[in-house]
Amino acid sequence: MMMKRVELFARALILSAPALMLTTGAMAGEKEDAVIAKVVNAYGGPALTNARSLRFQVESKNAFPGQGYTSGYVEFTPLKQDIQFDLANSRASAEAWSSNYNFSFHTRTVSIGDDVVAVNYNTGDYQPAAAPDYYTAFGPNIRSTDTLLAYELSQRPDTAEHLGERTYLGRPHELISFEIPNSPPLTLYVDAESGWISKMARETAFGDLSYQFSDHAKSGGVGYGRNFEFFVGEDANIVSLNQTLSVNTVRDSVFRIDRGVDEEPARVDTSEMTVDEIAEGTHLAGTGNAYTMFVDAGDYVIGVGGYAGLADRFTAYREATGSDKPLRYQIVTHHHTDHLGGMADALELGATFVTPANAVDNLNTAAGADIPEDRLMVLDGAATIGPVEVYDIATNHAESYALAYVAPGIAFQADHYNGLYDDAVAPAGSSAVSLKNAIDGLDLNVEMLLSAHGRKAVSWSEFESAVSAYNPDGCPSGRPICAKS
Ligand SMILES: [Zn+2]
Predict the structure, then answer these.
(1) Is pLDDT of 20 > 60?
(2) Mean predicted confidence (pLDDT) in 124-130
(3) pLDDT value, residue 426
(4) What domains, with CATH codes, occur in the chain?
(5) Angle formed by the axes of helices 146-155 and 134-143, to 10°?
(6) How many whole angstroms from 326 Cα to the centroid of ligand 1?
């Protein structure tokens, strides 16, 4: 990734130098200024640059690469967004609603004074936003909206670099890069004739991202692309179905926390690497949203939970327990690629993998090499590895999921439930209900439920009360974005 960015800068220098030499008397930046003027003019000129506010209401389909129900493809999920930018006061509100076969969320990230908070309408509470500054909190919305890219470009001409010309979709385009705070440089593909932005590209740790805009129109004198598609690498991630823009209609009352919405209970502190003893010989190690259960099997250790950073968690486990036993087995929970980020570590540590059959392809990719046959145990129903029992179950999250159980009553799961709070019961989604049904069907005596995504060891009675409080209504707030008409 670093290499690619260096190459991009180098190309920028090569391409801009001849342009300067060929244009007699040209000032540095003249080409950039011309492209910026073309873009601003296309998007409405003063109607854009003097707009006090812009509101985008968007209906899309959203997919999550590597997160399908099967390992073969990913499903598309409905996504609705109501994005309101108060440009005059550098504040915004981004409401999003989605509901599908295994999750539903309804959130609003909103500027409140100098802060940014995240409202959760499914639970009726709010918390400080993970990203408290304007450009980090609302950068994803700015980058997904060509009108806002044009607006930001007009505000930051000094960061612009003309990168040359390229044919894109059969038409000549000017390439220009510019910067907004807290983001890698953004490269715009500007239609050389019309000035519309056809595409924005940027390179991130997640891979090459591309944002495509088409079917441009005007509303209130301001231009916008009515079609939007977002790709992560080669995978389609968001495809818009309908998009509208209204100009200067955002109201002051938007920038308040909704009546009846309370601050959420205190979350379990996950800021530092911790190693908790759950029962004799069973530990949970991790930090942030990545945890692994390590089980001492006598001569060796069994790991369950495979997020990136597995080697660091194993080192922390050894330091905390004084163990020098090898990681002999690593249990792969399911085929989702985020849960395979630590598998190259496990391969390096010498582990044999215990995995659902449908995760083998993704496992090989994540490990960076085909796992040798003598280090691969493909689950067929159930297996016993030392003191750990592994059950291949089907839930609404994954068609094939390896549930790990250690006597006298500890189960480890990923993605179905996260305890979240110190002293309160965290809300359950449909996946928690599905998991509980699967565990009930196994007739296991689970007393404690561990999670790949959180530190809290949840008692079975707490899990049961979360599941019994589950609300299947995908729109409990009744807000217009999701209310059934
Ligand atoms: Zn998953």
Answers:
(1) no
(2) 92
(3) 95
(4) 2-263 (2.50.20.10), 274-468 (3.60.15.10)
(5) 130
(6) 27
